[in-house]
UniProtKB/TrEMBL annotation:
Domain DUF7967: residue ranges: 27-115
Highest taxon listed in the record's lineage: Archaea
InterPro entries (alphabetical): DUF7967
Organism: Natronorubrum sediminis
Protein name: DUF7967 domain-containing protein
Amino acid sequence: MTAHARAAGPGYFGPAVEDKFMADTATDEVRVWLVERTYSDDEQNLIILTYATTDGERYFRKERALTSFTDARETTAAVEVEPTNLGDVDDPDQRANYAAEAKRMAEVHDPDDVI
């Protein structure tokens, strides 16, 4: 264990692990992880991707048409978004679900893994 890790306390996992979960401080963007993929009830051929922070308190929703003129339609495990584009998760159960899934995704995937 490094001196920095000892000084940081028992919840410190090191810079590599901390960076994987936290915002990119250079751009102030927040990393959110894919927690839900659903099809729209209102529109045909529309998929809704929901990403959330690892604490489940904030979310980002992206809509994507299933039909496209390009073949490049990759969905990554995580995306970086501006804090102003995040919504609040008000429901405690939904917050817990988002947190659990975001943490699971962060543990098993790199942010740019194609899902």
